[in-house]
User: Fold Reverse transcriptase domain-containing protein from Phytophthora rubi.
Amino acid sequence: MTCEKIEERRQKKLEAQLEAQLERISDESSQINLLAQFETRRRKKETQKDSGRPLTTTEQEPSKTRTTPSTRLHASSKTSSPRRFRRKFLLSEVQTIDDFFEGRRKADHVRESISPHSSPTFCVKKATGGWRIVHTFNNLDDATIPAQTPIPRKDMDLDAMSGSVIYSAIDLTNGFYQILMRETFLSRPSAPPAACSGSGS
Assistant:
């Protein structure tokens, strides 16, 4: 018996064990976690098999932060991993999803992801008879740490500045520099116009 056949039999046995465990678990979140663990183990084995060497600690335990050329994602360690096991699709859905991503890839709108997190993609039937592609990023959004210094809202800044005539660098702490300023008022603020641009009355 060849190594490939042994590996195939082992894989089928693992899948049978997984199905048996899933039947015993009624909680959906526990099922999803079990599927994610199974998928992670399978990917590790494939990586180890392709490279022909044992995985290092950093490869076995991916960090919570992965860097791409343009984005850095910080995922909270308090939430469960947003990896989700993909369900089986109809053939028409598979064709629609493949065509969708192939068209986006040719237009250079998407690229292959290196993120450890994945979000499910599925199809919803349109009233016209076609398929609508839907991506659910809810779990990734829940695990993403929001910016700790949100940009102030423009209307709140305007309300806070109502009736003011003189401005100083202290106004910068409230984000007033984001509001456009009349040219006649450029000499009023104590901070340089490039850094502070509030509007006075």
Observations:
- The two ends are 87 Å apart (CA to CA).
- The first helix runs from residue 3 to 24.
- The chain has six helices and four strands.
- Strands lie at 65-67, 72-74, 121-125, 131-135.
